[in-house]
Amino acid sequence: GALGHRGDSAHLLLAGGPGALEVRDLEYRLGEGALRGELAFDGTSRPWPDTLTAGGVRAWLATASEWRGRLSLGAFPLDRLDRMVPAARGLWGRLSGSLEIAGRPAEPRLDLKAEAAPVGRDSLQVDRVALRAVYGDGRLSVPELRMTRGEAVSTASGSLPLQLALGSRPLVPEAPMNWKVDLSDLDLAVLPYLAPQLAAARGRLELH
Prior knowledge:
Elements: E1 9-17, E2 20-30, E3 33-42, H1 54-61, E4 66-77, E5 91-104, E6 107-121, E7 124-126, E8 128-136, E9 139-149, E10 152-161, E11 177-182, H2 191-194, E12 203-207
Parallel strand pairs: 11-12
Antiparallel strand pairs: 1-2, 2-3, 3-4, 4-5, 5-6, 6-7, 6-8, 8-9, 9-10, 10-11
């Protein structure tokens, strides 16, 4: 398994040189789903990592002056995602999407598109969820998060401060966030899933 997480199969093709590493081909299969991608790092602060342990290589890559790549998910089973992401416990369904990666590991620029249909968490079931999110300059922007339940369509959009860096835990600074939420047919059950940070938010919230 990768990083202690067991998949059904994995394939990884690497290339590199002083101050650089390239993941030319990555495939990680789990059930009928798959994660695929490629990612290149350039301009690390040292030509080679001090140690070849996972932590040592990650710390070395985190110093790169540039990274670029793309990851894609196809029909990835969410009910098995909690093995890698504990916060995903209770999710079920299949996720597809893509993540474009640019900037540098210490200050990434990310562009995410994702869709799941159907999808649920615990007792909540949604026919379809579609998300577009962009990260850069210490802020996560969500142009639209759309949830469909039968004839009801609920949406949310907004932004929040967020600090992301390779090798560091995500951090939400004490700064204002803004969200606009449109709940179709007063579908309040979806509110925590449209904007889970609302309970601790400071800033402006519009409900329609």
